[in-house]
Each structure stands twice: as C-alpha cells, then as structure tokens.
Design brief:
Oligomer: single chain
Order of helices and strands: HHHHHHHEEH
Number of helices: 8
Distance between the termini: 83 Å
Structural class: mainly alpha
CATH superfamily of the largest domain: DksA, coiled-coil domain
Largest sheet: 2 strands, antiparallel
Shape: elongated
Length: about 220
C-alpha cells in the first residue's frame, strides 16, 4: 500500500478514535459510573415494584453495552495504527492476503479479510449438547448397558430409590406405579436370571427356610 493510502487510513482511524473517546466520556459524565441508586435518585428499591425500574435497567444495560463496544473498537484502532507504523497494515493477519479497499473504507481497523472473518465467525464444530457432557457422564438412567448383568449405575439408583423418592405415580406416567414403588423402572428385576430366582428367602419361627412369594408384590 502506498504512503498516500496509509496516510488516508491513519487520518480515518484517528478521527474514529476521537469520536469514540468523546462518546465514552459523555456516557461516563451522564452517570454511567454511578450506582443505580445515585443515577435514579431513589433512596431504596425495596418499596418500588420491579416494573417501575424496568426502563432504567434497560437503559443502563444498553449504555454499558455501548460503552464496552466502544472500548473494544478503541483497542482495535490502536492495533491498526501500530500495523501502519510496522508496515503490515492492509494485510490479513491470518492468511496474509491484502484486505480489500471496500472493507477498509467501511472498517479501517479491520484485521482480517472477508474470507477469514467469515471463517472465524462461522459455526465451526458446534456442540448440540453442553460442553461439560464431553467429560461428565449422563445421569444414572443413561448408564445402563443393554444386556449387561453387572451392577451398574442404574441398579444403584434403583436400590436407593426403593426406599422413597419425591416422585409421584403421575410423574412416571405409568398406571401400574403405586407407592412405595414410585421410581423409574421400578418393575425391573434387579437380580436373578429368571423371575423365580429373585424371590427372596425367609426363615419361619421353626427355623425352616422358605421362599417368600409375597415380598415381590409388597415392594
């Protein structure tokens, strides 16, 4: 880029910097640095309905966002002025290709070309689920492995939930769910290859060991 174009963009950047500095200074003078109580003149917010302060909160949030955006633009302008002094202004800092004059005319502090900016702002590898799920396993209900016979997380939950939960039969959406069996998969066999293997044993008064065929129905 020739020296004439560099001087033109330097003047354009300095003019924009001065304008942003005046805007930020004006926002600060209008009470942006003050607390909500000082800026509104209210001694207390406790006796005022929240709706009465909705407009003040909206304006305060808007002014803060504009101020922060102006600060970011000032930082970008300073970096652009440094690139002019270094002789790298007008070239994309990512791919090294020249930035079009049309883009610099609209945004003289531009650091990337249009293609690199679109790539940086593109969707990329977005997660459909929260990032923490990449390292944290799902809840107990999703840990069961179909066909597995070992005691897994789901079995642990069922063993504890049988003593009582905060759920109701309507929460499960199952007509057969009744207290105390009010938890997910309450009717699932926790042990035994066949249903008869899960029938518990009991000892009667004479010391005879027998199977309790009613325990399964009770709970």
């Amino acid at each position: 880029m020739d020296q004439g174009r560099l001087d033109y963009y330097r003047d354009k950047l300095q003019e924009k910097r001065n304008r942003l500095e005046k805007q930020i200074s004006s926002m600060e003078e209008d009470g942006l640095h003050q607390s909500m109580r000082d800026s509104t003149g209210e001694l207390s917010f406790y006796d005022n309905p929240p709706g009465d302060l909705g407009n003040e909160l909206f304006e305060r949030a808007k002014d803060l966002a504009l101020r922060d955006d102006g600060v970011i633009q000032l930082e970008q302008i300073e970096l652009a002025l440094e690139r002019i002094e270094q002789g790298s202004y007008g070239y994309c800092t990512r791919c090294g290709k020249p930035i079009s004059d049309e883009r610099l005319e609209v945004m003289p502090e531009a650091e990337y070309c249009v293609a690199c900016r679109r790539e940086a702002e593109g969707e990329g590898n977005r997660h459909l689920r929260p990032l923490e799920e990449d390292v944290i396993r799902p809840p107990f209900g999703d840990q069961s492995v179909k066909g597995a016979t070992y005691f897994d997380g789901e079995d642990a939950w069922q063993a504890v939930a049988r003593y009582g939960t905060s759920e109701t039969p309507s929460d499960l959406g199952e007509e057969r769910a009744r207290y105390p069996n009010v938890y997910v998969n309450w009717d699932e066999d926790l042990e035994g290859v066949e249903e008869v293997d899960a029938i518990p044993y009991l000892v009667d008064e004479e010391g005879m060991i027998a199977r309790d065929y009613t325990e399964k129905q009770r709970g």
